Amino acid sequence: MSHFETLLPIRDSLVQLRPLAHRDADRYAEGTRDGDVLRYAHLPLSEYTAEIVRQLVDTVVAEGLREGTLLVLTIADAVTDEFLGSVVLFDVREDRAEVGFWLAPWARGRGVAGRALDLVSGLARTAGLTALEARTLPENAASRRLLERGGFTCGGEPAESVTPDGELRATLHYDQRLDA
């Protein structure tokens, strides 16, 4: 069991973060078909069905959580447990990890992403990480604003990087110090 497992779920008055579960499969798959998610999330698979999500929950998601190397978390409503999106800690190393996130269209405009980002930063700090990294496309103004409001600092001009979907793209790189 990883240290992360013992810290989950976490919540505030608006959202909770918990491991992706079978009960999220239909809404997760539905959310990944949204145009903005397709354009900006750079998910590893080109298509998600509920069955694929359930298989991932039982394999990659469970293994990553157990080993503390990959956290695929559901952003859920704190009261109703409705699936709202996903936040992922990946490329987890001794002192840092990269964070990625996306919201389903029905969750946007309610402050959910900012709250989820704050919660995952707190989780990473409690787990002993000292920094988080994030990348986004320069044209993703909403993500850039969210990262900056969440205490991330942009590292300068766009640079080529391989995104989680395996594509080489010009991305902006952000860092957040957790030990400050």
UniProtKB/TrEMBL annotation:
PROSITE patterns: GNAT
Any one GO molecular function term: acyltransferase activity, transferring groups other than amino-acyl groups
Superkingdom as given in the UniProt entry: Bacteria
UniProt domain N-acetyltransferase: residue ranges: 15-179
Transmembrane segments: none
The keyword Secreted is assigned to this record: no
InterPro entries: Acyl_CoA_acyltransferase (IPR016181), GNAT_dom (IPR000182), N-acetyltransferase (IPR051531)
The entry's keywords: Acyltransferase, Transferase
Record family assignment: Belongs to the acetyltransferase family. RimJ subfamily.
UniProt protein name: N-acetyltransferase domain-containing protein
